[in-house]
Amino acid sequence: MLEKTDKKLVYLDNSATTRQYDAVTETMLQAMRENYGNPSSLHALGLAAEKEVRAARKTIAAAIGAKEETLYFTACGTESDNTVLFGAAQAKKRSGNKILVSAAEHPAILEPARKLESLGYEVVRIGVDRLCHPDMNQLAAELTEDTILLSIMGVNNETGTIMPISEIAKIKADYNKAHGTDIWLHSDCVQAFGKIPVDLAANYRGVDLLSLSAHKIHGPKGMGALYVRKGLNLPAFLLGGGQEQHLRSGTENTPGIIGFGKAAALAMTNFDARIETMRTCRKFLLEACKAEIPDIRINSPEDETACPSVLNISFLGTRGEVLLHTLEQDGIYVSTGSACTSNHASAKGSHVLNAMGLSPKEIEGAIRFSFSEFNTIEEMEYTVEKVKAAVQRFRRLGSFR
Ligand code: PLP
Description:
Layout: E1 10-11, H1 22-34, H2 44-63, E2 71-74, H3 77-91, E3 98-102, H4 107-118, E4 122-126, H5 136-142, E5 147-151, H6 165-179, E6 184-188, E7 209-213, E8 224-228, H7 254-269, H8 271-292, E9 296-298, E10 310-315, H9 320-329, E11 332-333, H10 351-355, H11 360-364, E12 366-370, H12 377-397
Parallel strand pairs: 1-11, 3-4, 3-5, 5-6, 6-7
Antiparallel strand pairs: 2-8, 7-8, 9-10, 10-12
Helix pairs in contact: 1-7, 2-7, 3-4, 8-12
The chain binds pyridoxal-5'-phosphate (PLP).
């Protein structure tokens, strides 16, 4: 555990995970102490737990414009993603064996896709441009009659690039209509939810499956959800007692679900104010880095095609990992890429920045700053000062080692 000191702590790794809201912790504690029944039990304690689970399901479903019966709780975003890939492959093996994913997806998508590839499925990785936007021509051209699934994330976790989901949904719908196919569209919205509007009745209309995770919106870790369009026949991922309408057996994580519901409610109630704080901090940091630090490359879109929660910058002639540990000494916490993919980091560095065509030097010097509503402009001023000093020192000495 981190020792409690008076030292400054500037947390800028919110895409890795967020600090849980105190209100979420309180709600979960109360659920653990008092509402500990099994939602499947027929007595009053069971019914009380079931009522809370239902309320959370309703809140989260409403937050994405869905009906409560289409939302299933899972143990994490990774589980939701795996359920979609393996479920689609199993459910649609008679229709085809081709799966399209973007090359910049999270490993929670890329690894199951790779596994399916080893089992004989054809996996096409749609390329991305220098700012991580998917190649829409390639995407449209790769839709064929043997395609079963198209999986494109809502927001990229390393760059904050917002993917054109409504455009993709239209391409998929037009293709399905013209060819009589039933290609499913999945969107991993682990980074998008709570940061940009995700509305199945508006900008996400036509999306068939959608993954969520609680810990990116100040909810508990180890808690996810999966939206499955009504009528879509996704096979069960976990078999057992038949919970979650038989899609995902296992006694429900009631404190986690209740905490997720609380976090989603808070995220939606304060949506505009939260986003404005992130946007202001991001803009300040971006402009200050551009003004004060030479030889940098901005790896995130600077316009409205970027999510306000992420800013990725390459400080050329430095090593991101060394900068990270130097900043840590000043109480500033950042990331070099995506923290939850660190076990997959190859010698070549971030697969996302690689897919964007960055040079090894640009990848080596990349830092991801990711924001939350708890950040302030004073923190950004302090961060720029410390980043500038660290970069200058690194460039002067060649290295800190
Ligand atoms: N998808 C994306 C885009 C992510 O950023 C992450 C985590 O960083 C995940 C999936 C995995 O979510 P979880 O940590 O809940 O398994």
